[in-house]
Amino acid sequence: MGTNVENKTVIISGASRGIGRATAMLLAQHGANVIVTARNADDLNELQVEATQGSVRGKIIVAPGDVSNESAMAAVVKTAYDQFGRIDVVINNAGYGIFKNVDEISVEEWDSLMATNVKGTFLLTKAALPILKAQGSGHIVVVASDVAKRTFAGGSLYTASKYAQEAFMGALRKEVRPFGIKVTGIYSGLVDSHFHAKGHGHETSTHYLQSEDMAESMLFIISRPAHVVIDEFMVHPLAQDY
């Protein structure tokens, strides 16, 4: 089966590094026009420069913004629509983790993580929905985690955010299918990225998934024929027992 995303307009949040960055580069290489957003404008600009120097058929447009800010996400969506006249895919990838016992988590940490992982998914999706509904087509992808399906000690805050994303997707899926809009949750296991405390490339992460593996998964998901939707996509490194 093909991987045709040529000329599709794709918005990716959390695109400054890791999975988001790898996905933006891969989709642009396959001819998609990718609007990348994150708080770090310098990293996004570096990605854009790298894309222009490589074998990239599509465009990468930089639109910095904080996913927890409603007006910022509305501006990102407007940039995409103004540039290309449509939006085909929205990839909600922005997120981070805090891993502590419940009595060690501060209120500020709780609010900050939920604002990025959950509110950010809501705001970017909400901003894009009127355009997708008017088109009668579109695809919303949420990069969740396998911990949207399980819990572990020290993971109360992070798993709560991923369970919230899971519930959000479930309701959204029922709302938007009549409009021809697809919703996919991608649930990853361990990924070798900056997400982990020891950082990208540490010897303990040798057998983890790579960001490029997740990017390839994303490409597969969004390039299915119009009548096909992958509702849920679970992916793990073989070394991880799920």
What's the structural blueprint in terms of helices and strands?
Layout: E1 9-13, H1 18-29, E2 33-37, H2 41-53, E3 60-62, H3 70-84, E4 89-92, H4 107-135, E5 138-143, H5 156-176, E6 181-188, E7 191-192, E8 209-210, H6 211-222, E9 232-235
Parallel strand pairs: 1-2, 1-4, 2-3, 4-5, 5-6, 6-9, 7-8
Helix pairs in contact: 1-6, 3-4, 4-5
Q: CATH top level?
A: Alpha Beta
Tell me roughly what share of residues is in helical segments.
40-55%
Distance between the termini: 28 Å
Which word captures the global form? globular
What's the helix-strand series? Answer: EHEHEHEHEHEEEHE
Structural class: alpha/beta
Q: Beta-sheet strand percentage? A: 15-25%
